[in-house]
Amino acid sequence: MKVILIQDHAQLGSEGEVVTLAPGYARNYLFPRGIALPATEHQIRKFRLAQEKKKRELEKQARASQEMARRLSAASCTITVAAGEEDKLFGSVTAADISEALAKEGFPVDRKQIELDEPIKKLGIYSVAVKVTPEITAQVKVWVVK
């Protein structure tokens, strides 16, 4: 029996491949688990159209992520904190503080997307990396002032 895989399967192959296997295996294991569909012309055409639609959606999301990264790179935020002598802060500026400041500027960013090696403990201007997606990173200027 010929089936088209709609998910990657370690023993059978990758998504989109048409494979031949025993009818009982397909009927009793692959079909109920949503791993494969019968390889009819209609199912193959339907699967190809779904893949094309999925590809277009991923491209659209990639363009939106690039745009967000570009806008974030042009942005800056100011965080006002209490500081003592020699510009040392009472406490520190963390990723959560930066996330809050960016949200006020109109950039909803989760604190987990902000990459700080260590908390900021002095006044100054810092360039902080923000991961928009795992592949796309933007640099945001953070001003820490008294």
Q: What does it look like?
A:
It is built from three helices and nine strands; from the N terminus they run ββαβαββαββββ. It folds into two domains: 2-65, Ribosomal protein L9, N-terminal domain (Ribosomal Protein L9, domain 1); 67-145, Ribosomal Protein L9, domain 2 (Roll), CATH 3.10.430.100. The longest helix has 34 residues, at 41-74. It has helices at residues 23-33, 41-74, 95-104; strands spanning 2-5, 18-20, 36-38, 76-80, 88-93, 114-115, 120-122, 124-131, 137-145. It is of the alpha+beta class and 146 residues long. The strands form three sheets. Strands 4-9-8-6 form a four-stranded mixed sheet. Helices cover 38% and strands 29% of the residues.
